[in-house]
Design a protein that fits this description.
The protein is mostly beta strands. It has one domain: Sandwich (Jelly Rolls). Helices cover about 0% and strands about 55% of the residues. The chain has no helices and 12 strands. The chain has an 8-stranded antiparallel β-sheet with strand order 1-12-3-8-9-10-5-6, with no helix packed on it. It has a 4-stranded antiparallel β-sheet with strand order 2-11-4-7, with no helix packed on it. A hairpin with a 7-residue loop joins strand 8 and strand 9. The radius of gyration is 16 Å and the shape is globular. The chain starts with a strand and ends with a strand.
């Protein structure tokens, strides 16, 4: 089995507040993509979510299944409807989380340049240094679109902005 090679494609580290983070013109020379996020939003809560849209793909193209633990409660969720415009990272920390903590998210997108629907998987951990306010989760989903993926746009679901210090790293993965 070949050893995968991770190649840094793009990095965004915020030095101020920003409403969206966009990766456009993603090259098609890799097998898979990995997006690694360490973020925080300005939502007046300890947690927020991140909406992710591929290639500005329209309504009804996304479905997602989630399992997660929020505090001490295990939960699951389906994000499947005709109105979905994005898929979601859960549990990015908000303004009321412990100061200077950031959440950790990863999304893996295999065969992003293929001519079939795109699948993805996510993992997330909302850091708050608290015995009661914490969350972890995993998701798997489908983007019903056969176009090669060349762009990702991330926005906070409830907050207005990502805050300074939030970091977004995009890697291309190829077998070597």
């Amino acid at each position: 089995m070949p050893t995968p090679t991770y190649v840094a494609i793009a990095k965004t580290v915020l030095t101020g507040s920003q409403a969206t983070v966009t990766f456009s013109g993603i090259v098609n020379t890799y097998t898979d993509l990995l997006l690694v996020v360490s973020a925080r939003t300005d939502r007046a809560s300890w947690t927020d979510n991140i909406n992710v849209q591929m290639n500005s793909i329209a309504v009804g193209s996304y479905s997602q299944r989630d399992v997660y633990a929020y505090g001490t409660s295990p939960l699951s969720n389906n994000l499947i409807s005709s109105n979905n415009q994005f898929f979601r990272f859960y549990f990015v920390v908000g303004a009321n989380a412990t100061s200077n903590t950031f959440s950790s998210q990863e999304i893996y997108i295999p065969n992003y340049t293929g001519s079939t629907n795109k699948v993805f998987s996510t993992t997330t951990a909302g850091e708050n240094n608290s015995g009661t306010d914490f969350a972890i989760g995993a998701s798997a989903g489908l983007v019903s679109n056969t176009a090669a993926m060349s762009g990702l746009t991330l926005t906070p679901q409830y907050g207005t902005n990502f805050v300074s210090g939030s970091r977004f790293d995009l890697y291309g993965i190829k077998n070597s």
